[in-house]
Write a structure and sequence with these properties.
This protein has eleven helices and 13 strands.
Length: 327
């Protein structure tokens, strides 16, 4: 694939990344003499209608947006059965790579970075686009420190039907909102939940929920309350910790209802702390499955397990009550 020229204009240089659906190459626009990113749908997915649909949705989503904190798209095309689109090349690394390198950010730096990310998400929401897969892996940081949101592969237009299959969910288990995990409709508040998980990880070095399988992690999103961030990092203020916990509360009605309100509260906390947080490292093996964007089937099994756990809890309570009555 390297050195191939698409549409007599876009020269493929070298591979820079591989995702579940596509491969990204660094390239050159020979007409404008500029460096670009070329995203190409994987060979094995070229003939699959669902994959093509997702690929087109990503291109349409990004094309509808124009913002400093969102990766720009320049062109979309097909040549020799190769489906591709041309994007802005971001010279930097992902936020996930920064976290995994144990790059320590102050609370103020984390808030400042999240505010910029929120601005990009706000622009998408104002254009009725819900990302549905926000996570550190999909946030690219330029060498100048500007975050840019990428990978709108499972985004949806708020007015259109979701791509989620019946009996399955699509997303990344480590960052997915409880409503998405249940196979319900995602909205702006679902993106806020994922941003909350991302901010949690930025400040503690770990996601709140981990498990051996994606299903195990999803069940925790639905059922369990995580430790508050300040319990893992004492240098996080109680106010900032509470803000994050509000972002990742289970019920969407109890979260921030829009990005604008979140931004107001983040701004108010911005200058309250300038200390270096102590990153707590955890096993990366447990996070690998939870990091991947994919279709996670067996929603019925998730709900069945949830119901069983509820029944077990109720039975335990009944037994305790009986014991109290006997006593």
């Amino acid at each position: 694939m390297e050195n191939k020229i698409l549409n007599k204009r876009y020269k493929i240089l070298n591979k820079v990344g591989v995702g579940g659906m596509a491969t990204v190459y660094k390239g050159k626009d020979l007409s404008l003499n500029r460096t670009i990113a070329i995203k190409i749908l994987k060979d094995e997915l070229q003939e699959k209608s669902e994959s093509l649909n997702r690929f087109e949705i990503e291109a349409q989503s990004i094309a509808a947006l124009s913002h400093l904190n969102i990766v720009s798209i320049y062109d979309i095309g097909k040549e020799d059965d190769i489906n591709y689109f041309i994007m802005e090349f971001v010279d930097g690394e992902s936020l996930k790579e920064k976290i995994d390198q144990n790059v320590i950010l102050t609370c103020d730096e984390s808030i400042d970075l999240m505010l910029k990310i929120c601005k990009g998400v706000e622009h998408a929401h104002n254009n009725n686009i819900i990302h549905r897969d926000l996570k550190p892996h999909n946030i690219l940081i330029t060498k100048g420190g500007t975050p840019k949101i990428a990978d709108f592969g499972i985004a949806k237009f708020a007015a259109k039907k979701t791509m989620t299959k019946v009996g399955s969910v699509m997303g990344s288990a480590g960052y997915i909102s409880p409503e998405q995990a249940r196979g319900k409709k995602a909205d702006n508040r679902s993106d806020i939940y994922s941003l909350g998980i991302t901010l949690y990880e930025m400040l503690t070095g770990q996601v709140p929920f981990m498990g051996e399988t994606a299903i195990a992690v999803i069940i925790k999103h639905i059922q369990e309350m995580p430790k508050a961030p300040y319990e893992l990092n004492s240098q996080i203020s109680k106010d900032l910790s509470d803000l994050i916990m509000k972002m990742i509360t289970k019920d969407p009605e109890d979260r921030y209802q829009n990005i604008q309100d979140l931004v107001v509260d983040l701004e108010s906390l911005k200058d309250l702390s300038d200390s270096k947080p102590t990153i707590i490292l955890t096993s990366k093996e447990l996070k690998k499955e939870a990091d991947k964007t994919k279709i996670i089937s067996n929603i019925k099994n998730i709900n069945a397990k949830e119901n069983n756990n509820t029944k077990e809890n109720n039975n335990t309570k009944e037994n305790l009550n009986k014991k109290d009555n006997i006593n």
